[in-house]
Amino acid sequence: MASPPDRIPPIVRRDRTSGPTRRSLLAGVAALGALGASGCSRVATASGTEGGELLERLRAQGVARLGIAGEIPFGYIDKNGELTGEAPELAKVIFKRLGVDRVQPVPTEFGSLIPGLNSQQFDIVAAGMYINPERCEQVIFSDPDYQMLDSFIVRKGNPMGLRDYKDVVEKKAKFATGTGYAEIGYAVEAGYRQDDILIVPDQVAGLNAVETGRADVFAGTALTTREVVKRSTKAEATEPFKPIVKGEPHVDGGAFAFRPSESSLRDAFNRELHKLKDSGELLRILKPFGFTENEMTDMTAKELCGG
């Protein structure tokens, strides 16, 4: 989103098919009780060993803590209080193969994912976070498990004819996007004043802003926008498009984030991820959340980090 930023409904999500709103998702988090409380505790500090020893510690304790942002379809708590989403479901498979039996959610706001990771509140960010150079200065990423274009939520019929960020600027549309979303930077690069952007928590709030007239347009991932408008009688999603970054059309890739000291865990995770890509199992895992063959990618974290 992300979505992210980065990169939060009916789903299917980073949130994707008909399903709970963010408010109900957060209520589900509260219902977890002791689980949520334990998820807020700090994880063990990384050792000085090159590449880190986190994988060994996770194997010993039998659980990996996942930072999620309550965003459908990327990582969220469903109406039954269960952890799900494309990133958590993929993490369950990979960590099982790495010898870690289970995963545990640590819900937070999207903008707090990287600070929370680096302050030891959880072991890995499993929120479908977009890889970009700024984030690559703070964390290390696995290779992306999906690629994504942008899309807008607009009023039915798209009365202002908004199809990309250039249109938003030229037509002086009231623009909204989510907290910490990459779309903030894309709008600014197109010439939109950052101080004029309406920042809302997620795509559900973005839909509401468009439906009530607080915004003319909300920008998010193509997947989240098309899913969140499914039950709306007042709004629709535009055709997906590539944002312009440094003068060139850009495709985002979402991935898992790790602390810079834990390259051994990241590398082991990557090896299993590539096995899933090669076998076609990755698409099978992500398909229930609205992902298609078009969202599969061979991009690497290195190229998305700008290196």
TrEMBL record:
Protein name, as recorded: Ectoine/hydroxyectoine ABC transporter substrate-binding protein EhuB
Keyword Signal: yes
Gene this protein is translated from: ehuB
One annotated GO molecular function: ectoine binding
Keyword Cytoplasm in record: no
Annotated PROSITE patterns: TAT
Pfam families: SBP_bac_3 (PF00497)
Keywords assigned by UniProt, alphabetized: Signal
Solute-binding protein family 3/N-terminal domain segment(s): 63-293
Superkingdom as given in the UniProt entry: Bacteria
Gene Ontology BP terms: ectoine transmembrane transport
Residues spanning the membrane: none
SMART domains: PBPb
